[in-house]
Amino acid sequence: MRKLSPDTPYLAIDKKLLAKNIERMAKQTTKAGINLRPHVKTHKIPELAKLQLASGAVGITVATIGEAELFSKKGLRDIFIAYPLFVTASKLKRLSKLARRVKLTLAIDSVEGAKALAEGLSGIDVLVEIDSGHHRSGCNPERAGEVALEAKSLGLDPIGVFTFPGHSYKPKGARQAVLDEQKALKEAATAMSKVGIEAKVISSGSTPSATISAESGIKSSKTKSIVNELRPGVYVFNDAQQLELGTCTSREIALWAVATVVSVNGNRMILDSGSKTLGADKAGWATGYGRLLDFPDARIEALSEHHATAVFPKTKTATVGAGRSAGSLPKIGDLIRVAPNHVCNAVNLVDRVYLIEDRKLVGSWKVAARGLNS
Amino acid sequence: MRKLSPDTPYLAIDKKLLAKNIERMAKQTTKAGINLRPHVKTHKIPELAKLQLASGAVGITVATIGEAELFSKKGLRDIFIAYPLFVTASKLKRLSKLARRVKLTLAIDSVEGAKALAEGLSGIDVLVEIDSGHHRSGCNPERAGEVALEAKSLGLDPIGVFTFPGHSYKPKGARQAVLDEQKALKEAATAMSKVGIEAKVISSGSTPSATISAESGIKSSKTKSIVNELRPGVYVFNDAQQLELGTCTSREIALWAVATVVSVNGNRMILDSGSKTLGADKAGWATGYGRLLDFPDARIEALSEHHATAVFPKTKTATVGAGRSAGSLPKIGDLIRVAPNHVCNAVNLVDRVYLIEDRKLVGSWKVAARGLNS
After folding, report:
1. B92: which chain A residues are within 8 Å (Cβ-Cβ)?
2. Fewer CB under 10 Å: which end of chain B, C or N?
3. B305/A264 CB distance under 8 A
4. 3-state SS, one letter per residue, for B70-93
């Protein structure tokens, strides 16, 4: 492995853990009779999107026109841009071209957004984005009918509603987020129905809430979920945030940075994986800037661009230089596995991710859609 | 401009403001008789490094071997890798190649680090990194003599000491950080002197502390700074962090993201510049995730990958759709200038930055060293 290893820091994906994560979500959604349309902004890798499709996903979700263009070029044929684009002439031209190549679905959350789209596109499928409690984009659910009707009158084809229950991203927040998501989507579908438009697609999904959403579709007919499509992204890899939210165990984290210990001062160690490798994300509730997978009690207390300051429990003393005994702390030069807090931002920082299987490096994937923000 | 403009979100550099920032720091250091060796990890752009050299910089500072390789290929000839590398055989090979092409200076903060370097390099200039209060990498100042002596005995050439006074990055922290930096560097130089090694280079520098460091070199001979080299990076652009620290005014910020307002709900507006454009950095003392340069009272209260949630003062009402009067708030589709919190991480997210002059797009630069983390 040493010969093949890239210089640290680099990102590694464990192929078996990845396959398990893909399979688990596919089974959950299939069992619940819900379509899975994974958000590929997490990985930006066409080869990985194809694995998701092979396990039953109906299509992919992307965040930007650039991502849609890239995945389309690589053979993906059913793409939802889950973002309330406000298009210029340039973006309209790109969307028109895309719409000729793939089954494209767009998003609107305002009459203004719909008008801008309608200046260059007609008959295109659109979903109305609603706010289910995350308070980001999305109109209020009761306005979904009005927005859909206006879109229809402009020549667009409103086929449903979607939301991102992003307030699932807090400790014990997922269950309430699912309740909010169900209520808001029902309200929006009803508002559309009142103006004579059927919400055929009712789409939601975040990794913390996806399993609960799916379960609510199967537990009993009384609590039958209104959602018929889920769009989680992070689940393919998981990350330190999902670990701390309780969405996954550390053995379900399929991607990590491989970092070198470059400096030691007592129980404080500096790793060469900083914010330019891991991303600078840190939610208010996070215990640090990522997690050391083999040292559950250590915390990354600070992060610079090329330094992670990892602090180990004070009861142990770092062994510097000399060989270390079993159970002792890392020493200078050791390789350490670091799970980033937010894997989507970490992957977007590298051109290539390395694939391992049974601890051996077996290949790499290009992060083909890296940096395609517009 | 419309015709030439890239699709949002993108990063723009104002060339005149950039030139002023470069000139200001060059003058300050020249006046103080201190060498300027700017940290180019901030911009990763060879053309920009050459502007810094043209205004008097003695060489450049980088953080990684990859950055050194790239800038070397582009003609930069005096490079300090300000990072306590722990080298493998692969990294040693890359460094040996580099050392044949450029005047290369390396960093050590431990005997172990020096030993690893000495396995493949001899006679190379090294600076001992010391901790002056930021508590990241760097040995304790009193250990500088021991580390330098060991390095010398191994065949390396210790020529001085350096520190990063990163604790300047808090409100009113800069002055104390400079006092700490001066004290620690004096202690380290003395420790080296005691073992018969002269610290010819005494290097420090962060953007918040650089001006104070330079001033302490000129105010009177009594407070004569011990520092003879400064390595600030961010000063070329400045950013929202420097603005909130009081290091710069908003008119001295030379780089911003150009974002589109895509969604409006009352006084909450969603811009398409998220953490994949701005970076997710947010210090504990920051008032938000970046600043809107034309709306000083607005704050970015949340940041997703492609959404900035900007909240405007409640006393005003957003004008949606219709034309807006002077002094009113942005509306859907408007372009907004957003200063990132930490410009180094923002630039590292894009392949290209766009250059403007007198509000017109006049060209672009490739971020040639983007992503070179190892």
Report:
1. none
2. N
3. no
4. HHHHCCCCEEEECCCCCCCHHHHH
What interface predicted TM-score (ipTM) does this complex get?
A: 0.95
The amino acid occupying position B137 is: S
**Buried-exposed string A14-30: b where 16+ CB fall within 10 A, e elsewhere:** bbebbeebbeebbebbe
Which chain B residues are within 8 Å of A265, Cβ to Cβ?
131, 135, 139-140
Task: Read off the DSSP letter of residue B183.
Answer: H
Q: Are A185 and A195 in contact (CB under 8 A)?
A: no
| CB of A67 less than 8 A from some CB of B | no
CA nearest neighbour of A208 among A25, A350, A347? A25
C-alpha distances in Å from residue B318, one per residue of A20, A80, A138, B315, B325: 47, 29, 16, 10, 11
Q: Cα–Cα distances in Å, from B107 out to A131, A262, B40, B45, B55?
A: 51, 11, 16, 23, 26
User: Are the beta carbons of B264 and A84 separated by less than 8 Å?
Assistant: no
- The full DSSP string for A271-322 is ES--HHHH-S---TT-SSSSEETT-TT-EEEEE-SS-EEEE--TTS----SS
Q: Considering CB atoms only, which of B88, B109, B281 is closest to A275?
A: B281
SS3 call for B186: helix
Query: Which residues 351-370 of A are in CB contact (within 8 Å) with B?
Result: 351
Take residue A353 and report the two structure tokens written for it: 């991710």
User: Does B179 lie at the interface with A, CB-CB under 8 angstroms?
Assistant: no
B3 — contact with chain A (CB < 8 Å)?
Answer: no
Per-residue pLDDT reduced to its tens digit, A113-131: 999 999 999 999 999 999 9
The pLDDT tens digits of the residues spanning A290-303 come to: 999 999 999 999 99
- For residue A95, which residues of chain B lie inside 8 Å, CB to CB? none
How does pLDDT run across B271-298, given as a tens digit for each residue?
999 999 999 999 999 999 999 999 999 9
- Before A158, cis peptide (omega within 30)? no
**Local structure of A194: helix, strand or coil:** helix
A307-319 residue pLDDT tens: 999 999 976 544 4
Selected for mutation to probe chain B from A8, A342, A366, A374 (highest B CB count within 10 Å) is: A374
Q: How confident is the model at residue B323 (pLDDT cuts 50, 70, 90)?
A: very low
Token code pair at residue B237:
């652009």
Do B309 and A135 make contact, defined as CB atoms within 8 angstroms?
Answer: yes
pLDDT of residue B314: 77
Please state the pTM of the whole predicted model: 0.95
Chain A residues in contact with B282 by the CB 8 A cut-off are 280, 282
Q: Which of A180, A349, A239, A283 is nearest to B302 (CA)?
A: A283
Q: Which of residues 96-125 of B touch A (CB under 8 A)?
A: 109-113, 116
Restricting to B residues 7-26, those with a Cβ less than 8 Å away from any Cβ of A are 7-10
**Would the pLDDT of B316 be above 70?**
no
Q: What is the mean pLDDT of residues B207-231?
A: 81
Kindly list the residues from chain A whose CB atom is less than 8 angstroms away from the CB atom of residue B263.
84, 109-110, 113, 137-138
Residue located via tokens 């699709």: B7
Residues 6+ apart with CB under 8 A from B366: B45, B351, B352
Q: Which residues on B lie below 8 Å from A112 (Cβ)?
A: 320-321, 332-333
Give the H/E segment covering residue B337: strand B335-339
Question: Which DSSP string corresponds to A43-67?
Answer: T--HHHHHHHHHTT---EEESSHHH
